[in-house]
Amino acid sequence: MSAAYVQKAYKDLQADASCKSMLKKFLTKEVVDQLKDKKTSLGATVKDCIQSGTENHDSNVGVYAADTESYTTFAALFDPIIDSYHKGFPPTAKHPTPTFGTEEQINAFVNLDPEGKFIVSTRIRVGRSLQGFPFNTLLEKDQYAEMEKRLKEAFNSFEGELKGTYYPLEGMDDATRKQLIEDHFLFQECDRFLKSAGGYHHFPTGRGIFHNPAKDFLIWVNEEDHLRIISMQMGGDLGQVYKRLVHGANKMESHPKVKFTRNERLGYLTFCPTNLGTTLRSSVHIKLPKTLETPEFNAIIDKYELQVRGTMGEHTETKGGLVDISNKRRLGLTEYDAVKAMYDGIKALIALEAKK
Length: 356
Hints:
The N and C termini lie far apart (62 Å). The protein is α+β, with helices and mostly antiparallel strands and 356 residues long. Helix content is 37%, strand content 15%.
C-alpha cells in the first residue's frame, strides 16, 4: 500500500504544472523505485514523509521526517532537499559542533537600538527533539504524555528569571485560554501542512505552553517540534534576549530526564528539514520605512544572508515599513555565527535608515 501511494504521488505531482515544491523536483522515478519499499526501525515509510506535500501541492518543501532515521533511510530524497533549501549542504557536508559562543562573545551583543527608534521587539528560538521518541507522524498518545511528564519535571527545576508555570492544552480552562490568546502564546490545530504530515495526532494530548511571569521566556511543548525554546522582549537588546535563550536551553539539556537528538552530519534533528543544524531563528520586528526594498537594503540582506517577511509570520505582507528580519541560515554554522550574522546585518540596516 505504501509503495502504491508513493508511485501515485509521483505521477500526480509530475502531472500538476502549478506545483513548484521541492518534493516534486526531487521525488524522481529513480528515487521512488529506490525508497518505496524501505522502512526505518520504527516502521516509518517514505509515504509518511511525503504525505503533506502530496496532499498540498502548493507546499514549498513538502516533506517532514517521520522519525530521526528518516533522514538516513530516505537520504536519497532528503539529502537533495536539504542541499537545495540550505543553499549548499551536500551529502559530504557536516554541521559544526554546537556552540552559543564564549562569554566574551555573548557579552559583545549590546542593545542595537537603545533609543527605541527602529526595533519594536527581539525574539530568538531554537527547536529540540527528545531522544527515544519519533516525530509527530509516528507518535502514540502515551508517548506524547510521557514526553510532557519528563518536560514538566525539567520545568520544575528552573530558578530565577526562568522559573514559571506550565499550562497544558488538555483540560485548559477558558480564562487561561483567553489570556494565552491575548499574549499570542497559544498554538492550535490550524496549519493544514502540519495536519497532513500528522502533526496533530492525538491533539491536544501532551501539548502545552510554559512561560515565566515576565513572559520573556517561553517553551512550546509538542507544537511542531517536541520543544520550541523561545526568548523574547520588546526593544532591541539582542544580547539580553540571547543570554536568556542560552541559559534556558542549557538548563533544559542538563536535566537528567531530557536528552536532545543530534547527529554528526545534520546537527540537531527536528520534524522539518528546513529547521536542522542550529534550529535557531533570531529575529527582530523593525521599522525601516525609508529604505525598505531599496537596492542598498537588498544588498545588506544578501550580504548577511537574512530573511525578510511580514510581522504576522511566513507568507505575510509587510506593512508601513514594519518587517520581520531574521537569519536565513540554520545549517552549517554555529549558533553564535547565526546570531552574529543577524546582529551585524540589523546594525547595518539601522545605520542605512538613519542616514536617509
